[in-house]
Specification:
The protein is of the alpha+beta class. The chain folds into 3 domains: 302 residues, no CATH class; 110 residues, no CATH class; 59 residues, Arc Repressor Mutant, subunit A (Orthogonal Bundle), CATH 1.10.10. Helices cover 42% and strands 19% of the residues. The strands form 4 sheets. The chain has a 9-stranded mixed sheet. Helix 7 packs antiparallel against helix 8, helix 9 crosses helix 10 and helix 9 packs across helix 11. The longest helix is centred in the middle third of the chain and has 20 residues. Keywords: ATP-binding, Chloroplast, Ligase, Mitochondrion, Nucleotide-binding, Plastid, Protein biosynthesis, Signal.
């Protein structure tokens, strides 16, 4: 696309809040972390050899009958409750008819008019760099279904192969209300869904493995118009950043057509996001509900829930990301800290475990978000792989706060604990790192440094007071980093400002 056209689209994006409104909804498919598939006993493992985990049921062979995996129902109820939905205590499966080479039966077992959960919502905190604030997005429905297989295409385009390992893998489809208005809101909604399924343990949520797949529906209408514009579906979104960019491009494309009086050229279709060219392209015209010819699945009974079953799952729900963020806010943590800590369930658990040992929340957050996060990034480790334990981090923070060691020595100990593990107390004793807090001993070191640097003393007393840092550094060097900084600077100021 020419530079001028790109500039024009960017200019149109800036105009959107005033002249046009985007309406965005998302259909999210979550692949469930069950041991076996939805309707047979075949296991599923991402990346396994093609067609190595299949049977007559997931191959759709004549006479093979499905048997529902009860774990799928449990996970569906769990997610429905977490999304504040109303549960259907009597739901059913349906056949969704369509042909595709990776759909061996010629239909997909899904849910149509009676989904297991509906009419919920998801609360999202928008990061500060995108304007901040809290948003609530409606959830239309959550329903159970099976996945299709996977087509593999040769690079030269002359050969396509089908891998049915994924056929029959259980999915939950979450359909949002059309409540989002830009790419940032949509990508943050999807990221919150990913956090939620990981917290619940129903899916690993890995987009790169296809465990969480989002299809975005985008339409544009003039501000003030109540009728929705023509909806366009965008697929092939393999990251939240891609989703945001794809949506903003599609909005700009539709705005451009509206502004040129060509809105009739916006047709209901499925478009693909091309990461390389940063644009959407037509894939196929969108099917309607009538094309799928839904009817009740005759080989499966209704799914009937009891109140006792639902209550048992409700009582076992973990603290969810939204609840965790509100709890962290009440501790006095800023939104940047809150979003970082609650983003990853394992980091949040590490943080909470450290607090349970008596450490200060803000200090723990600072250590995790700075030095510990930097170490994990450099070493390509998760918080579960580091050698440091919550107990030792709490002990380290307490040792610094109690004046046993300095902050500088604390950092040195931290990196050893991260890489090798061990005990804070043992390291302090073994390396003789206890902070020097004896005023007499520190005064001797200050006197020595002042005596060895007469020129700098003269400059300090002549008005170059910033040299105090030089003297403090020299004393720290003499003390091998063990001098109490507060006491050191107090004695140093008295000595430097003394005329004798």
């Amino acid at each position: 696309m020419a530079y001028n056209a790109l500039y024009f689209i960017f200019a149109l994006l800036l105009k959107i809040p005033k002249d046009y409104e985007a309406v965005i909804g998302i259909e999210t498919h979550v692949q469930l972390s069950t041991l076996t598939k939805a309707f047979c006993s075949c296991p599923y493992s991402y990346g396994s050899f093609p067609n190595s985990s299949i049977c007559p049921v997931c191959m759709g062979l004549p006479g093979a009958l499905p048997v529902l995996n009860s774990k799928v129902i449990e996970f569906a109820v769990k997610l429905g409750l977490a999304l504040n939905c109303n549960l259907a205590f009597n739901s059913k499966f349906d056949r969704k008819q369509y042909f595709y080479p990776d759909l061996p039966k010629g239909y997909q077992i899904s849910q149509f008019d009676v989904p297991i959960a509906a009419a919920g919502f998801l609360d999202v905190d928008i990061p500060l760099e995108f304007g901040g604030g809290h948003k609530r997005f409606g959830i239309t429905r959550v329903h159970m279904e099976e996945d299709a297989g996977k087509l593999m295409h040769a690079e030269n385009g002359n050969l396509s192969q089908v891998d049915l390992n994924r056929a029959g893998v259980p999915l939950l489809e979450i359909v949002s209300e059309p409540d989002m208005r830009n790419g940032i809101e949509a990508s943050e909604y999807a990221a919150e869904l990913q956090r939620l399924v990981r917290y619940l343990g129903v899916s690993n949520g890995n987009m790169q493995e296809g465990s969480l797949r989002c299809d975005v529906n985008v339409s544009v209408r003039p501000i003030g118009q109540s009728k929705f514009g023509t909806k366009v579906e965008v697929k092939n979104l393999n990251s939240f950043a891609s989703m945001s960019r794809a949506i903003d491009f599609e909005i700009s494309r539709q705005v451009l057509l509206h502004s040129q009086g060509q809105e009739d050229q916006i047709v209901q279709e499925t478009r693909l996001w091309e990461e390389g060219s940063q644009r959407t392209i037509t894939m196929r015209k969108k099917e309607g509900l009538a094309d799928y010819r839904y009817f009740p699945e005759p080989d499966l009974p209704s799914v009937i829930l009891s109140q006792e079953y639902v209550d048992a799952i409700q009582n076992c729900l973990p603290e969810l990301p939204e609840e965790k963020r509100r709890r962290y806010e009440k501790m006095g943590l800023g939104m940047q800290d809150v979003l970082f800590l609650a983003n990853d369930k394992n980091i949040a658990e590490f943080f909470d475990a450290t607090l349970a040992k008596g450490a200060d929340a803000k200090l723990v957050a600072n250590w995790i978000m700075s030095d510990i996060a930097a170490f994990m990034k450099n070493e390509k480790l998760t918080i579960n792989n580091i050698k440091l334990t919550p107990e030792e981090l709490s002990e380290l923070i307490g040792s610094i706060k109690g004046g046993i060691i300095s902050g500088k020595i604390g950092k040195e100990i931290l990196f050893e604990l991260l890489a090798k593990g061990g005990s804070v107390k043992e390291l302090i004793e073994k390396k003789d790192l206890v902070q020097i807090a004896d005023p007499v001993e520190i005064e001797k070191m200050v006197d020595k440094v002042i005596a060895e640097n007469p020129k700098q003393v003269e400059q300090y007393r002549g008005g170059k007071t910033k040299l105090q840092g030089f003297f403090a550094g020299q004393v720290m060097k003499v003390s091998k980093g063990k001098a109490n900084p507060g006491l050191l600077n107090k004695i140093l100021l008295v000595k430097l400002n003394s005329k004798s």
